[in-house]
Amino acid sequence: MRHTSHGLLQVLTIFSFVLVVTFLLLYTHTVPSDVMDRYITLTSVLLFTSLSFGQTTTSTAGPATYTNPILNGVGADPWVTRHEDYYYMTYSTNDNITVLRSSVLTDWNNADVKLAFSPPVNTSYSYDLWAPELHQINGLWYVIFTADVDADSPSPNQDMLCDFTCPAVNHRMFVLESSTSDPWESDYNIKSELDTYDQFAIDGTYFNHSTGLYHVYSCWEAQYISWPSMLCISKMSDPWTVSSPLSERAVISRPDQPWEKTPYNRTVNVRLSSNEGPEQLVNPTTGQQFIIYSAARSDNRNYCLGQLELVGDDPMDPSSWQKYTAGCVFYQNPDAEVYGVGHASFTTSPDGTQDWLVYHGMHDYLTGWSARTIRTQQFTWNSDGTPNFPRPGIGPYAVPSGQTGSGSSATSSSTGGSSSSAGVSSSGAVGGSTSTVLQGLPTASASWGAWWPTYSSTWQTTWS
Questions:
Q1: How much is the pTM?
Q2: Distance between terminal CA atoms of the chain?
């Protein structure tokens, strides 16, 4: 407030001085007209400059804020992790695996961009690369993602075997491995396809537990039973190897609640009933472990977050999991015109004192998948140790604790950047890092160029 008062006082002082001098000059008629014109021009510039100074100090007196979305343009299934001094983000681009790096959580329009992986043609992972996640495990970095062999266009002979139309019947899970312990400078190569028993699998993630490493993903009951989609878990011997046979794979959540169905409380059949996008969340104080997942249909305004808590000792035992059945724990907010919120990931503020969720949401929900944008908000914890998520909104909100630099995704811009070309090998690995800085253009499609996701018509009609 002292800065604001000082600026205003300065403006008033100069303005009063100008009025007095002008009055005296006009009253005495001692100044030639051309000199008087120059004087008026000069004083006008001086007054405008002072007024502008007063406005600038006023705007900088308050705390730094940001608004949602935090990345211009379409974006879905965001995964954000913090490592050393940077945040790293990856999300569904459909055609490749792209990693972004930023020193701030709340503005990704000027982030560094790295093309981590571009799939070669004619492989089981050539199309529809969705929901990538970047995990540090045993000193290396692993990208777990889902992809398809046929761009969600199975042959009629295969589609006829499904109980409902099943464009994603051939989606499977895959893993990339980094070449070094540095997530940015590493090359990434295909390590393995994860064993999902030759069945549909999307949105896979790692679940770390004292008993080992687990793969949690969205699954079907069997190869051609295309609805509902559920949450399955299997044990792993390492980040690229599933050790559980099909007989031991467990279903830990089914979309059996009204808010997990589309439309709400659908009863005619199980089509469009969905659990997907599982993410591990650990209470840093109590150690309670949760899986926060997405429920209902991702192109619908009712898409939301559900909650499972591990209340037993064995993650492979369905009875060890307790679902919060009272409703979504994070859901649409019509008052703020925010809809279809889901597929969240979790990170912390730069100083580690706050917890934040990163998610996608919609404004124009009638346009479906293409309406999704990436957002972030702080969350806290309830007295019983469960997460306390806020109502989704636009803001402005205070930036994360310890964050320095730009906090406004609406006004950020870049003063430059460099780009180094990256060669793509036959395996799809990209050599070197591409440090392109996004230029803060009005839409992300203009910034990304050829890397920007195309969201092909086949992908848009998935789950129809």
A1: 0.79
A2: 56
